[in-house]
Write a structure and sequence with these properties.
Layout lengths: L13 H27 L6 E3 L9 H9 L9 H11 L4 E3 L23 H14 L8 H39 L8 H14 L5 H13 L5 H6 L4 E2 L2 E2 H6 L2
Antiparallel strand pairs: 1-2, 3-4
Helix pairs in contact: 5-6
Length: about 250
Amino acid sequence: MTSEEGSLRQLKRREDTIGYVIIQELMILANMAVAEYAVKNDIPILFRNHTARSATPEREDLLKLLESIAVIPEVNIATVRHTAYMMLNRAEYGPVILGHFGLNLGAYTHFTSPIRRYADLVNHQQIRAYIRNEPLPHSKEEIQAIASHINLKHLENDKAKSEYMKEKAYKEAEFAILRNRIENASDTDFERITKFLIRKGGDCPEAYRDVFQKRLASCRSSAQGWYSCRPLMAKDGLSLKEQCWKS
């Protein structure tokens, strides 16, 4: 299934899926109603915009791709998620309406979580002042400045989180190598070990070479790791793959 922003999520239990969908649909309905109310009454608020890139297929074709996840093995979901990620731009806040591609809505905002999101709090302040016939606390220009600030902070936070998760994965891969746990590593962990060795450079460990050859021969190892890291695999003219095949 997809999240509010159109990114793919995997829920393991059907009961979890039902509960998640009910809550999400109610939240989306409330946010959509507030966005339409602000538009009709010309209230400057922080709209939540989500646009598609030029390479994105028609919506019907994209929906078919997302629906196909139900029959795709779990190991391939990451590939499909990455493909969907490349089709869509980041969702951002703004003072004007650009639409929400992921939800297929003309106008959308964030309003339901003012205790955890500043954008929601700003929108509450704007709507409350309008209903009470009080001066609006923020002009459209100030809303633009707030939107730019929040978008920048989200970008910085995502970048920091990505770097943290990457370093964590490398540390786990290094631990697996030191503890000689390569043989029983899952496909995902084996890919992380591969990326760690590419980043580290040097000779290919014998334990890794043996496991790599077995996985390659049985076609169990995912090709995604090799192709995504191919530009980094050269080491003095000798790729990690070639090192693993050296006798």
